[in-house]
Amino acid sequence: MDLAERYQDVGVIGAAGKMGSGIALLLTQELGLRKLSPDGREQSFKLTLMDVDDRALDGLKRYLRGQLRKFAEKNTVRLRELYADRADLVENAEIIQAFIDDALDVVRTTTDLGALSRNHMIFEAILENIDLKVKIYDQLAKQCGPETYFFTNTSSIPIGLLDEQAGLGGRIIGYHFYNPPAVQKLLELITSSKTRPDLIEAGKQIAADLKKKVIPANDVAGFIGNGHFIRDGLHGISEMQALRAEVGFAGAVYMINRITQDWLIRPMGIFQLIDYVGIDVFQCILGVMDRFIDDEKLHSDLIDTLMDKDVRGGQRSDGSQKSGFLRYEKGISAVYDLDRGDYVALDAVFTEPLDEKLGPLPEGYLPWRVLARDRAKDEKLAAYFANLAKSDTLGARLALRYLQRSKEIGEYLVRSGVAGTPQDVNGVLLNGFYHLYGPINDYV
Amino acid sequence: MTPRKKVYAAAGTYTISLGSGRKEFHPKKPRPGLEHYIQEAGQGVIAQISDPNVIDECVVSNFMAARFNRQGNLAALMPTIHPSLEFKPSTRVEGACGSGGLGVYTAMKSVLADVADCVLVVGTEVQNTVKAIYGADILAGAGHYASQRKAGHAYFFPAFFADRAGAAYEKYGFEKVRAAMTQWFVNAIEAARRCPQAQEYHNAAEDLYALGNAKPNPKAFADHINVFDCSKVSDGAAGLLICSEEGLAKAGIEKKDAALISGWGTSVADVTKLPEDPTSLATSRSAIEKAMAMAGIGVSELGFAEVHDCFSITGVLMTEATGLVPQGEGYEFVAQGETKPGGRLPMNLSGGLIGHGHYTGGTGVRQTVDVWKQLTGKAEDFQIDVAERSYGLVVSMGGNDKTVVALAMTQAD
Q1: What is the pLDDT of residues B59-92, one digit of tens each?
Q2: CB-closest option in B131, B140, B154 to A80
Q3: A443 found inside a domain
Q4: Which of A7, A189, A423, B320 sits at 20 to 30 Å (Cα–Cα) from A389?
Q5: Pick from B359, B63, B62: which is nearest to B198 by CA?
Q6: Structural domain of A125
Q7: In this complex, which of B137, B218, B219 lies closest to A92 when CB atoms are compared?
Q8: Does domain B8-131+233-256 have CATH number 3.40.47.10?
Q9: Strand partners of residue A186
Q10: For the segment B259-276, what is each residue's pLDDT rounded down to a tens digit?
């Protein structure tokens, strides 16, 4: 079966979730465009979107409709060409509406996993839970045809394990989209030793069709993205714990978050990033990695304690950020104090003595958002980090240790075969985490 | 033809040109509507005269309120400016982006026909009501919808002028033409920074030349031109009074505060046809020739001009349409800075359509107000030295060089 034929019958499981809805959107767009291509006009396309809750599926359809409009508005130049033979469609508004209708016509929603038995390709984006994934793939292996391809959106669970437990015979590949999938360009493509070569080829082609940048990763729990992020986060937690005796929990969280955002010139501080991902998700990935990686203890008592206290981070359904290490009201407004079990406002009385301890930012510092648009950013970063290395403030020492640890993690990922090259590690951090420089660099 | 009597412009005003670039603009927040702009401009005129009761008649120019705002019958919005306008004559005129010029021209005809001494002209458009991709559908009405829209580009009008730019690249060489277009953009923003009502007044970009030279993106926009070559989507209004000599006296306006419209020309060309030579603006040229002939002046007597630059290429071609330089020489003329203040013919001193903004149906009125401001010394930070008996030219153009009004104006006293 060739890929064009596979595209005619596609399914998404967990389609109403955060990742699933983005994957569903990308596929709706792709199938909508295929339907308008010269070959596609003679074919029928079906995208079956499955989730457990009807209300969530209603929400998914609204989301798809809204996002398809935005997509069509941005691609009207091309859509006018594709609809050139439709004399009844004259205005941009008519063409945009026609595309939304045509694309949505391929979509079927269902709460029944059995409805996916005839799909040629299934994208799965359910919770990051090994038992649940194994159960679903067991069922799919029984009900689907012997040629069905499976694409699992996981950021930590080994593909080989799912393959083996469900008996998929190499028909599963790791397809780690970054959040939100419709926007983020990066896709980590994870193959196990059993993954079929034809599936690897198809996986690359689909990623190209969906306009994604593929970085290959080997089948080691956490892969490249979480392989770096989780260890980087643990380092932040450990540095924070070391400062805690002197400045208290809230003070230490504030300081390390500032070091990682400002001194390291990253888009977010480490604790903001953990909140963004979700402390619950962080805990879950940590658990998976700890289970499959033998020579390293990957655990955090603090994360467990925060979860016990219901400090979880993550986002609400409207996309707004929930409180975690930090509280977010028009930006970061307060920081959690484990000692008191409450949030402390980030006012000058709180921050000034801590900032004073850290010392001034090294010369040449520019905020991430400014440097991100600067064509000479590489030279400016090199000059800045040279100044940082010469600086003898607490802030600079913490930052330097952080850079060193980040580099060690990156080099470990290459050495242990998770990533093929240093460029792959750097590529994931640049494209998936929007860092301005890779962890494997000459700055330290 | 020699006009039977003198006709003057006075008491000009305009609102800010609201749209992307202005700090006040937020696409998701509520904004003033059509009525607000008509009232603000109209009341701005009335504030400059002794008695609103002297206004005999109103003209409102607008292109597509029926689609942008779902509102027709604009003539009857004029009494919302002031109660004295109730039961007065009022006319709405439309000629695409040249509506404003036609509005001024229509008011002049009432004065010349001896049926009015003071005519209030307001030109307006409120077009941020729809996204640009849908606005392109609406603005496409300035071309021939039935024969051109289906085959046309998503960004219908930008593509028309991109074709003109492409033809110029081919004929005169890319480097030369592109340099002129980019310089036109730079001049427009620099001028707009001197006019507080201009849409680009807040523009703080450091390297304007690099910005204006951005590579075109045909997938998202048009061939041959970039978004900086293109005037923006704007909401705004401009107003002024068109008077006879008696009208000036009745309104309490001194001659030194008025400008004389001493020549005018209007021309249309067949909207169903594409231009024979895309590297010239033949209809504009025809209207400008008529205006200058009526005023009895040659191009050397022009001190400055307000020309229609919906796109940077249009602005460059306008230098040739004035007759100041032969066809093919406008590119170097602009690239060498001859249209900047201090150049041989300063143009668009408050930013033009690219810098000031382009509230389509009101632009011609705004241009006339700007020439009046220069001639009466009211242009503040964008004022240039205007010699006595010097002329300012207005060129208000609709569509792809299809409906044009040109005015030659000078000091009234």
Answers
A1: 999 999 999 999 999 999 999 999 999 999 999 9
A2: B154
A3: no
A4: A423
A5: B359
A6: 3-218
A7: B137
A8: yes
A9: A213
A10: 999 999 999 999 999 999
